[in-house]
Amino acid sequence: xxxxxxxxxxxxxxxxxxxxxxxxxxxxxxxxxxxxxxxxxxxxxxxxxxxxxxxxxxxxxxxxxxxxxxxxxxxxxxxxxxxxxxxxxxxxxxxxxxxx
Amino acid sequence: xxxxxxxxxxxxxxxxxxxxxxxxxxxxxxxxxxxxxxxxxxxxxxxxxxxxxxxxxxxxxxxxxxxxxxxxxxxxxxxxxxxxxxxxxxxxxxxxxxxxxxxxxxxxxxxxxxxxxxxxxxxxxxxxxxxxxxxxxxxxxxxxxxxxxxxxxxxxxxxxxxxxxxxxxxxx
Lengths: 100, 172
Description:
Largest sheet of chain B: none
Largest sheet of chain A: none
Radius of gyration of chain A: 17 Å
Structural class of chain A: mainly alpha
Shape of chain B: extended
Number of strands of chain A: 0
Shape of chain A: elongated
Order of helices and strands of chain A: HHH
Oligomer: heterodimer
């Protein structure tokens, strides 16, 4: 039997890698993939909680998260295509009209 | 022992592949590493008695979402990625904040106390099958959230089409 803590450490490490990727990469597509990485880290922790607490609600939450991730990927990639059509770049530090 | 070895392999592969995803030069390689990582996550779900989610992970993430990413990467034709720099100017701050998050998460996990155990034991799942147990809860207790998810997906379809389509000549 593997302790719950191992799964949670794995999930925390994966989430931290996702944060790092989102903050350091210039390419907006890879930033989106880092978001998917973070969602998957949350999924792993939810499934392991559900398994160790002997409850099915963790898996149902993961089901909803996967649906929302699919919606988010479709919208996000449409935004990337619109951005590329207008600016011919996918580098996020070259899109600075709003001075953010 | 076999369970620990399996977990060690899956966890090591997931960490290594996610590091490769955020650090490789070419976005195509990134997407392919991510595909491999999703298969390992599906394997991890199998060790946690979640067969239905493992199948969904492979079908939805690997089959649908990553194909979408791959299409966008190919569509945008990013040849210059290989020569220009990959990281933003202030990348050490990004690494530092991610590391700080990791430390805080580990510290917070030290004081974690598990709640009382539920009623869905592995024996019950083995008797009734995973999909049946999920379906019974999803279509009774979580019916309303389930309907809301379908509306979210409909909005995503409409939004993606209206964002990505070319403007008609008459509208300009």
